[in-house]
Amino acid sequence: MTKRDVYLTEAPLDEALQRFFSTLEARGMTAPLEGETIPVDIPALGRVTASPVAARVSSPYYHSCAMDGIATRAEATFGASERNPVTLRLGEEARWVDTGDPLPPGFDAVIMVEDLVEVREDRVTVIAPARPWQHVRSVGEDIVATELVLTANHVIRPPDLGAMLAAGVTEVSVRKKPRVAVIPTGDELVPPGTPLSPGRIIEFNSRIVGGLVHEWGGEPVLHEIVRDDYEAIAHAVRVAADAADIVVVNAGSSAGSEDCTGRVVSSLGELLVHGVAIKPGKPTILGIVCGRPFVGIPGYPVSASLACELFLRPLVARMLGRPAPRRPKMPAVATRRIVSTPGVDEFVRVKVGEVNGKRVVTPLARGAAAVMSLVRADGLIRIPPSAQGVEASSTVEVELSREPDDISNTIVVIGSHDLTLDLLASHLACRYPGLSLSSAHVGSMGGLMAIQRGEAHLAGVHLIDGETGEYNVPYVERFLGTEGFALVNLVHREQGFIVAKGNPKGIAGFADLTRPGVVFVNRQKGAGTRVLLDLELARLGLDPGRIAGYEREEYTHMGVASCVASGAADVGLGIRSAAAALGLDFVPVAKERYDLLTTKAFLGSSMMHKLLTVMRSNEFKAAVAGLGGYDVSDTGKVVWEG
C-alpha cells in the first residue's frame, strides 16, 4: 500500500512565520547575501547596494559658470545703478562665458547676458551690482568628494544612477540576487504547448512563482517537471540546494497517497511546519533541506501564490537586506456577505471600486484553482480566525495590488453575467487608457440590490416579469421606485438550452429536463436565467424536484457551458454565445433584453459618457455581433428613465 503522509502540524499563521524565520535566523540563513560588483548603468536599476557608496570626485569639480553672459569680479560692479552705470572692459575686467564653462581665474561672478544694457566690441555696461559667486556653481556645490552618495541596502533608482556617475562612481557593489529554485512536481503535468488529453494539466505555476521572485528582486531558477516519486523529488531537491539559496517545491505538499514532499524534507533536513491554518494554502510546508531554506507550496495556483506572498517574499527580502515591501491599504465596504472558515486566516481576493465617494469591494471566485481570480483581483482582504465572515455593508481593509488612483477610474458593474461585458471592458481600456470596467457576477437581483445600496455604477439585468412579459422595468419600479434610475440597453440576446454537439439527449423543451437520464446544470438564485427557468417550469406545471441537477449552480453562462462541454451535465440554460464559444449546440428558447441599470446621476457623468461612446461605436457592435446570438440594434440606447 502506498504510504500516505499526514499533517504533522496545522500551525496558526503567526506561529508558522515565527517558527520558520526564528529557526532560519538562528542558523544564519536570512542574513543579506554578499555583494557583487556591476557597472553603474541601466541594469543596476532595482538592485540593492551591498555597501555604502562614496563620491570619488566632487560635482562640479571646478567652479562652473551657471549662465550665459560675462564673468567678472563682483567688486568691479559695486555701486552700479541706472543713474550710475558701470562699464567693464572685455578681456581685463570681464570675459564672455557660456553655461558650464570654467570660471576664468581671478573672477568670482557671472552676469547674465540679459542684464547687460550696452554691449560694444571691447566693453559692456551694467546697471546693477553683482554679488560674489552670483550665477556660479562652486566646486562640490552638489557633491563633495568622499561624501556619502547612497547607503547600504538602498534600492537603486534612476536618479541614483545619475548621482553615482556624477560622483565619479562607475561600478557599484550590489547584493547578489537570491537564487530561488522552483521545482514543479506531478505525474499529471505537461510543459506548455504540449497537446492535451484527459488527466493532463499544463504546468504554469512555476512561471507564476518565478515571476514573483523576479518581481521581488530574486533570480528564479526553473526546474523541469518532476514526477510524483520520492527518489526523483529528493534528487531534484539535492541538486537545487547545491545551486540555489532557496528551494521551492510546487505541489505534493498535501496528505495524498502521492504527496511525498514532507518526507523528502524530513530526510534531507528539518521539517519545521507541515500545514498552516490559512485558506487557501493549508498544505504549505516550511523547513530546511541540505542547509537551504525550503518552502513547499500547494499545487493550486491561488494557494501557491498566497503561500509565496506570506513565506517566500519576506525571505527573499531579508536576503537582499530589505524589509518586505508593504502594499498600500485602504478601507472599503463589502457589497455582499463573505463567509469564512472559523479557526483559519482566510484570504479573499476582491474587486475594488469607488461609487458615490464610497469604496466598495466584491469578492471574486474563491476556488484555489481559479487562476483568473489572480488576474482580475484589485486586492486582498484577510479574515481572522475568530471572525465568522464579513457582513454585507461592513467595512474591511483591502491590501491593494493596484495603485489607489486606478480605483477611482474604475466603472463598477455588479449583476448578471454576459460575455459582452468583458468585450466592453477591453474596448473601453483601448479607447480611454486609464479607465477600466470591473464586473462581478451575482445575478440580476443581486445587481438590482447593489444599485439600491449605492455599491455599483451599473448592474447587468435581464429579469422577465411573469405577468406582463416585460423585461427589467417592472422589477426596477417594484424594488427601487420610479424615479432616479435609468436602463441602457447593452444587447438583445438569445437564451436557450446549451447541449453537447449533436444534442445527443434530444433536448427540445423544458419538459425534457425532467426525463430520466438527463442531467441539468442551473444558474444561481437571483440570476435572470434562473428566473426565466422557474417561470417556464411554473407555467408548464413542472416540478423542479424532478430535474436532476436543479440544485447545482453556476454563476456565469460560461460556467454552464463548461459543465456541458466537460460532460458533467447534459444541458443547461444559457446564452447562444457561450455555447458557440465552446463549440456546443444550442436550442433557442427566448430572446431577451439585457440592460445596464444605473442612476440618472451616473448617466450624466463623464465616465458614463465615455462608456456610451464605446458602446455606440461601430467597432464594438461589430465585435459583439461576431460572438453570435446578439442583436445590437439598441446597443447604447437609453430604453427607460424613471
Instruction: Write down the overall mean pLDDT.
Output: 93
- Main sheet: strands, sense, barrel: 8 strands, mixed
Radius of gyration: 34 Å
Number of strands: 36
Compute the separation of the termini in Å.
70 Å
Helix content: 25-40%
Name the beta content range: 25-35%
> What overall form do the CA principal axes indicate?
flat
Uncertain segments are 1-5
How does the helix and strand content classify structurally?
Answer: alpha/beta
Number of helices: 17
Description:
By secondary structure, the chain is α/β, with parallel strands linked by helices. It is built from 17 helices and 36 strands. Strands 29, 30, 31, 32, 33, 34, 35 and 36 form an eight-stranded mixed beta sheet that branches. The chain has a six-stranded mixed beta sheet with strand order 16-13-17-21-20-18, with helices on both faces. It is flat, with a radius of gyration of 34 Å. The model is unreliable at 1-5 (pLDDT under 50).
SSE topology:
Blueprint: H1 13-26, E1 35-39, E2 53-54, E3 64-65, E4 69-72, E5 86-89, E6 94-97, E7 109-112, E8 116-119, E9 123-126, E10 136-137, E11 148-150, H2 158-166, E12 171-175, E13 179-184, E14 189-190, E15 201-202, H3 205-215, E16 219-222, H4 230-243, E17 246-250, H5 261-268, E18 269-274, E19 278-279, E20 285-289, E21 292-297, H6 301-319, E22 329-334, E23 345-355, E24 358-363, H7 371-376, E25 379-383, E26 395-400, H8 404-407, E27 410-415, H9 419-431, E28 436-441, H10 444-452, E29 458-461, H11 473-479, E30 485-499, E31 520-523, H12 528-540, E32 553-554, H13 557-566, E33 571-575, H14 576-581, E34 585-599, H15 600-603, H16 606-615, H17 618-625, E35 630-631, E36 638-641
Parallel strand pairs: 13-16, 13-17, 14-15, 17-21, 19-23, 22-24, 27-28, 31-32, 31-33
Antiparallel strand pairs: 1-12, 2-11, 3-10, 4-6, 4-7, 5-9, 8-9, 18-20, 20-21, 22-26, 23-24, 23-25, 25-26, 29-34, 30-33, 30-34, 30-35, 30-36
Helix pairs in contact: 3-6, 4-5, 9-16
